[in-house]
Amino acid sequence: MFKKILIAADGSDHSIRAAAKAIQLAEQNPDSEITVVYAVDGQTSKEDILHHFDKSIVDQVRKKRLEPIENLLKEKGISYEIKILQGEPGPAIVEFANKMNLDVAVVGSRGLNTLQEMVLGSVSHKIAKRVKAPVLIVK
Known about the structure:
Blueprint: E1 4-8, H1 13-26, E2 33-40, H2 42-51, H3 55-65, H4 67-76, E3 79-86, H5 89-99, E4 104-108, H6 114-119, H7 123-130, E5 135-138
Parallel strand pairs: 1-2, 1-4, 2-3, 4-5
Helix pairs in contact: 1-4, 5-7
């Protein structure tokens, strides 16, 4: 059974589907804990600041992206926490995940950053290759 579950999320439809699958896994164990991680790279950070000059508004915008996932977790009564990471999503999530004693990491097959997916390789691919725990990639 899965107790410690990580969801790599960016607010995309794929990450919401990944969260739904992670919740199904968590429902099998009443002691499950989910950590939702959202990595903010330099480009995203710059765009957030350009569109919203106030840091508190930037924080609200980032939390708003994860709201659908948070609503699913609340609806099911699953214990969770949200972590906002700084850095390129793939490496930042891998580093964070490998410091935890995870049972599984769940990630959507695609995210919001299509340019990065085409040029550098997808975040889900980096997570699958480098996270020490089992990784579930959800389409």
